[in-house]
Amino acid sequence: MLLCGIIDELHNSMPKNTHLSYFFCQATDSRINSATAVLRGLLYMLVKQQPSLASHIRKKHDDAGKALFEDANAWSLTDIFVDVLRDPSLRATYLIIDALDECVTDRTKLLDFIANSSSVSSRVKWIVSTRNWPVVEEQLETAEHKMRLSLELNAKSVAAAAKIFIQHKVCQLAQEKRYTP
Q1: In the 8-state DSSP scheme, what is residue 74?
Q2: Of 44, 65, 134, 159, which is most buried with the most CB atoms under 10 A?
Q3: One domain, residues 178 and 101
Q4: Where is the Nephrocystin 3-like N-terminal domain (predicted)?
């Protein structure tokens, strides 16, 4: 819920030429619980917003074919992703992953990729939500220009903010639907 609010706020407040690409992991769904699915989803959203970036995908696809996106070798998407991040035409970009701890397959590889690619381009910002697991924190330790926010350490503030947000949304919905008290 919190990351949805952050995405909405970024979308409403950022310049129109800024990209916003996000992915929601869910451990119980094999279609969205792997590092490959995360990269595929983020890459898809980036290319949809800036079609000229598809040239990086076409180059690799011409060499490897359809299997590039489907089989166990799909982790090679990282090469494409890095090429996209290094593309001089790439506009300012936010890459957002929710519930990274629910990425079951190749989470370690994905964490390493995020940490290593955080310095590829100053135009790209990563926002990642995850449970406070020491192994995740250790792997992201090498990421450059990071800011860490622990909601567990600020549980009372988070609960109060969530309550205010819910009250606001309930009032907004009541107004839109013309509900009476």
Answers
A1: G
A2: 44
A3: no
A4: 2-131
